[in-house]
Amino acid sequence: MNKLSPVPYGSVFFAPMEGITEESFRKVILKLYPEWDYVATDFLRVPSAGRYPVKHLLQHIGLSHYEIPWVMAKTMYQILTSHTAFTTQMVLDVQDLGIPWIDINLGCPSTQVCKNKGGSFLLQDIPRLTGLIRDIRKTFRGRFTAKTRIGYTDTSNFLDVIRMLNDEGVEMITVHGRTKEMMYREPARWEFIAEAVKVSRVPIIGNGDIWQTSDIDRMLKETGCHGVMVARGALKLPWMAQDYRQGFHHNDDQRRIVKMKEFFREYREELERGNISMRGLLKQSKSVSRNMLDGIENGEPIRRKLLLSQTVPEFYDNLETI
Ligand SMILES: Cc1cc2nc3c(=O)[nH]c(=O)nc-3n(C[C@H](O)[C@H](O)[C@H](O)COP(=O)(O)O)c2cc1C
Fold first, then answer.
1. Within 6 Å (CB) of ligand 1, which residues are found?
2. Is the pTM of this model over 0.70?
3. Separation between Cα atoms, residue 322 and residue 300, nearest integer Å
4. CATH for 11-246, options being 3.20.20.70, 3.40.50.300, 3.40.30.120, 3.20.20.140
C-alpha cells in the first residue's frame, strides 16, 4: 500500500453524510469542484457477525473510484463500529483491497446507532475505546483517522479522548464542536476545537457551522486548526471550496440558482450512468436538493415543489423553471 502524503495545512474537506455522499455524488463534486481537497464516504457499519463480500466493501467507496489512485488518496473510507462487531476482520479486508485510508466514526448521534453502542456512544468509556482504537491501529497499515464530537452528554472527558487518540497512533482527528446531546442544535463550540489543537500532536480538523466561504478562514484563525470540514454548508453551496480558493465571497440568489442547475445537470447524468432505478434517482435528487435552497428568497415554495415531484422528469422540469 502506498503511503499517503500528509494532509496540507488549510485543507478543506467535504464531510461524510449518510444518504448523500455516495459514489455518484462524490464523483460530481470531484469533477465540478476539484478544489475540495478531500471527500469522504458515509459510514459503513462493521458487521456484528461474519464478513462483507468484497463487492460490498468496494461499492462503499465506489467501483469507478476504486484503483484511481488520486481519488483513493482524496477519500476517507469511514467505518462505524462497536465493541462487539468484527472490526479487525473488516479492517483487514479493507486493507487487502488496498484502500489507503480508514476513518472511524465516533460522532454519530442517531438513536439506533447509539442503541447498538456505536458512533458517539463509544466516547463514554475511554478505556474500552482505547482497546478498539489500538486493535485497528495494530491491524491497519494505511492512514487511520477519527471523527469525533466533543462528548456524549457532556464535555468532561473530551481532552482525554483527544490525548488517547494521539497516544494510540491515530493520525488526524476531526472535531465536530457539539456533544451527542446537542445533536445539531445550538452553535458549534469552536472553543473546544481550539482546546483540542492545544493538546494534540496530530492535525485537528475543525467541523461545525461553516456556512459561507469566509467562515473557513475564521475557523482556521480562531481555533488554530489544521483544516476544516464542511457538511450542511457544503450541501447549500457545493462549490464553496472553489469560491474559497478563488477568493469569491458573494453568492447572491441568482448565482446560486445558476450553479445549482449546473450541479444537478451533472448529477442526473452521473446517476443515470450508474444504472440507478428511476425511483432511486428521484430519491437521491430530492435528498441532495433539500439544503440547496436554504436562505434563497422564496426558496421554500420551490423546495416544496421539488420535494413533491412524483417523477424524475417532473423534478428536473421544476428545477429548470426556477
Ligand atoms: C444528512 C447528514 C448525514 C451525516 N452523516 C454522517 C456520516 O455518515 N458520518 C459522519 O461522520 N458524520 C455525518 N454527519 C455529520 C457531519 O459530517 C458533520 O459532522 C455535522 O453535520 C456538522 O457539520 P456542519 O455544521 O458543517 O453541518 C452527517 C450530517 C448530516 C447533516
1. 15-18, 20, 42-43, 78, 105, 107, 147, 176, 188, 207-210, 230-233
2. yes
3. 12
4. 3.20.20.70
Element (H, E) at 127: helix 126-139
Contacts of residue 52, defined as CB under 8 A and 6 or more positions apart, other chains included, come to 90, 93
187 in helix, strand or coil? coil
Using one digit for the tens of pLDDT, what is the confidence trace for 223-253?
999 999 999 999 999 999 999 999 988 889 9
Domain spans of the chain?
11-246, 253-320
Measure 321 CA to ligand 1 centroid, in angstroms: 30
Tell me: the pLDDT tens digits for 138-184?
Answer: 999 999 999 999 999 999 999 999 999 999 999 999 999 999 999 99
Grid coordinates in use for 168? 494510540
Task: Work out the angle between the directed axes of helices 312-320 and 278-289 (0-180°, nearest 10).
Answer: 40
Ligand 1: distance of its center to the CA of 38 in Å? 15
